[in-house]
Design goal:
Elements (H helix, E strand, L loop, with lengths): L15 E6 L1 E6 L6 H8 L5 E3 H9 L8 H17 L3 E5 L5 H13 L4 E7 L2 H10 L6 H18 L6 E6 H6 L1 E6 L4 H7 L37
Parallel strand pairs: 1-7, 2-4, 2-5, 3-4, 5-6
Helix pairs in contact: 2-3, 3-4, 5-6
The structure holds adenosine-5'-triphosphate and magnesium ion.
């Protein structure tokens, strides 16, 4: 059952969001509330599965809303592959509809990993102001519509089955820290979660595949400012 996050107070006094790798971390908030900026500050680029990026990859335009089906198929595919490898998946999309959130929650369940939602509770006026100042603004009408969806969704999200619901005010977004702890899911369980739909096989790994380059960080990919945890 979802619980609001009561931030523990570490010695430094900063609030901490404690996350597990692998997991599905769903960012939820209207346009221009600061989701992508927050993600860039706390997570590695490769840990962020972005719907804008997926749109760009499928149709060359990250704002073209006509190809949502293809873009989100790619988002889900990337999450599946990453979870198979016990990777963190920070999903950067608005996640304002229950259907969108349920799709992500179902993926997390299928792979036996925690599902967390970060709610970006930023005032409408701030979103509008930030949008007006950015290079590619979406406009006040879009933000108002999305903000309304966010207000409607906020009380419902706690009943949707997420393991953790973290509410972040504009001030929290400035101050909060993240910690990522590694709790791998046994390979047999992630393999069983993979759908039987592969038409090709990448073949066996090259003999040197695991040995070339820098040895992997045992903590796995972590945020630039993530604090190491056991
Ligand atoms: N904490 C902050 N303080 C001031 N400005 C911010 C902050 N966070 C983000 N911004 C600015 O607000 C604008 C919108 O931020 P961002 O692109 O991260 O929002 P978003 O929620 O990802 O929007 P979208 O849903 O459209 O992708 C950007 O110009 C960004 O630089
Ligand atoms: Mg964004």
């Amino acid at each position: 059952m979802a619980t609001a996050m009561n931030f523990p107070q570490p010695q430094s006094g900063a609030r901490v969001i404690r996350l597990i790798r692998p997991s599905v971390v769903v960012l939820c908030g209207p346009a221009a509330c600061g989701k992508s900026s927050f993600a860039a500050k706390h997570f590695r680029p490769t840990q962020i599965v972005s719907s804008d990026r997926a749109r760009a990859l499928v149709c060359d335009d990250d704002r073209d809303q006509r190809f949502q089906t293809q873009a989100f198929a790619l988002v889900h595919f990337l999450i599946e592959q990453r979870l198979t490898l016990n990777r963190l998946c920070v999903v950067d999309s608005t996640a304002l509809t229950q259907a969108a959130r349920k799709g992500l929650l179902d993926l997390a369940r299928r792979f036996h990993v925690p599902a967390v939602v970060l709610l970006f509770d930023v005032p409408l006026a701030t979103c509008v102001e930030r949008d007006a100042q950015r290079e590619r603004s979406v406009g006040q009408a879009v933000i108002e519509r999305q903000y309304e969806l966010f207000v409607q969704a906020r009380p419902l999200i706690r009943q949707e089955g997420f393991d953790q619901v973290v509410e972040l005010s504009a001030q929290d977004m400035e101050e909060v820290q993240t910690e990522i702890a590694f709790r791998p899911v046994p390979r047999a369980m992630t393999a069983a979660a993979q759908p039987e739909r592969r038409r090709f096989s990448p073949g066996p790994p090259r003999p040197d595949a695991e040995t070339k380059g820098t040895p992997p960080d045992p903590r796995g990919p972590s945020a630039p400012n993530a604090r190491p945890t056991s």
